[in-house]
User: Which sequence fits this backbone?
């Protein structure tokens, strides 16, 4: 599978897990992508529970992000350009047939020691050092509910990395939604 698409989904999973109630308390899932979720869903979905848990976590994270800040004409980690979303959907059906890679990724994510978003994503090797450096210059808006990402340049992959990394500007229990205006998103 294409590395870019795999990394985008890995970024979504990592941020979805970080935002759960037993961690940063940004959305109302509690260890759905952790051991509790595994125990709860693996019996009903023995082969595909990893993918089912991820889908639910993405939906909850997306809904909560839209509730906090829904910028018109913009992209977030949970709402990307249709071309990327279509490629993710195409890959998803392949992953349903062989979810072992994602089970291993969730296990690695669960046993990671960092509570810091940037450190976690860097340790998982799903963000570039350049993206980490660019993200360090981002700031929340005065409303404290959003993180604008402007003048992205680079690739669509880097834009998505910045959307994930910018979640580090949120505080526990206080989500700030990173976004990129459509005109600033790389083609």
Assistant:
């Amino acid at each position: 599978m294409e590395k870019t698409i795999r990394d985008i989904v890995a970024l979504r999973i990592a941020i979805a897990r970080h935002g759960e109630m037993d961690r940063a308390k940004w959305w109302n899932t509690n260890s759905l992508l952790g051991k509790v979720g595994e125990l709860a869903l693996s019996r009903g979905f023995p082969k595909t529970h990893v993918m089912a848990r991820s889908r639910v976590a993405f939906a909850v994270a997306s809904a909560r992000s839209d509730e906090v800040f829904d910028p018109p004409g913009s992209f977030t980690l949970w709402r990307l350009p249709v071309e990327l979303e279509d490629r993710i959907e195409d890959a998803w059906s392949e992953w349903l047939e062989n979810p072992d890679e994602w089970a291993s990724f969730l296990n690695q994510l669960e046993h990671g020691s960092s509570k810091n978003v940037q450190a976690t994503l860097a340790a998982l090797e799903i963000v570039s050092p350049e993206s980490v450096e660019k993200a360090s210059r981002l700031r929340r808006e005065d409303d404290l509910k959003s993180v604008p990402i402007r003048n992205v340049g680079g690739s669509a992959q880097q834009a998505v990395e910045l959307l994930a990394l910018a979640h580090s500007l949120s505080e526990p229990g206080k989500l700030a939604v990173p976004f990129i205006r459509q005109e600033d998103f790389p083609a």
Remarks:
- The two ends are 21 Å apart (CA to CA).
